[in-house]
Amino acid sequence: METLQDQLLVAIDSNDLETASHLITGDIDLNAPCTELQGAPALFLAILNGNLAMVQLLLEHGADPNFRAQEPAASIYSEQPLALAKQSRMLMNWEQYHPIVMLLEKFGAIDEGASIEPEGRLEKTKAEAKKWQSQK
Questions:
Q1: pLDDT at 39
Q2: One-letter-per-residue 3-state SS of the chain
Q3: What is the pTM for the complete model shown?
Q4: CA distance 24 to 18
Q5: Which end of the chain is more exposed for a tag (fewer CB within 10 A), N or C?
Q6: How crowded is the C-beta side of 124, counted as CA atoms within 13 Å?
Q7: Domains along the chain with CATH numbers
């Protein structure tokens, strides 16, 4: 029998916001490391799928925007949700992942490895990402 966590991962992976919403109202720990994700929580899967509404749902119901993944998840994905979203934004699709980065920051996500960037750096980073993405 599938656990609530397993059912939630299926809902997240299939972008089924309605089912995920129903499951979250049950007794489920959104910050529990998932075996299927090598120890990362469900929030990581929602970020990887690039589903802004799903990320928001999880954050609104207690997913930790500063969760620190342990190995092997930290090496496979990233150590924290914000870093994962920023990597996805840079490597996969700026328009899809930039709103997720902004949402995570709105919910208090902190990028411990980042320095304060001068004005205009975001636009330069966006241009670099677009160039990288066009080469795929």
A1: 87
A2: CCCHHHHHHHHHHCCCHHHHHHHHCCCCCCCCCCHHHCCCCHHHHHHHHCCHHHHHHHHHCCCCCCCCCCCCHHHHCCCCHHHHHHHHHHHCCHHHHHHHHHHHHHCCCCCCCCCCCCCCHHHHHHHHHHHHHHCC
A3: 0.84
A4: 10
A5: N
A6: 5
A7: 4-134 (1.25.40.20)
Q: What CA–CA distances, in Å, run from 119 to 83, 116, 122, 123, 124?
A: 20, 9, 7, 9, 10
Contact status, residue 125 vs residue 114, Cβ threshold 8 Å: no
Pair of tokens at residue 72:
């092997």
User: Which residues of the chain have a pLDDT value below 50?
Assistant: 115
Q: How many CA atoms lie within 13 A of 117 on its CB side?
A: 10
Half-sphere exposure of 7 (CA within 13 A, CB side): 16
State which amino acid sits at residue 127: A
pLDDT at 118: 55
Q: How far apart are the first and last CA of the chain?
A: 40
Asked if 102 and 60 touch (Cβ cutoff 8 Å), the reply is: no
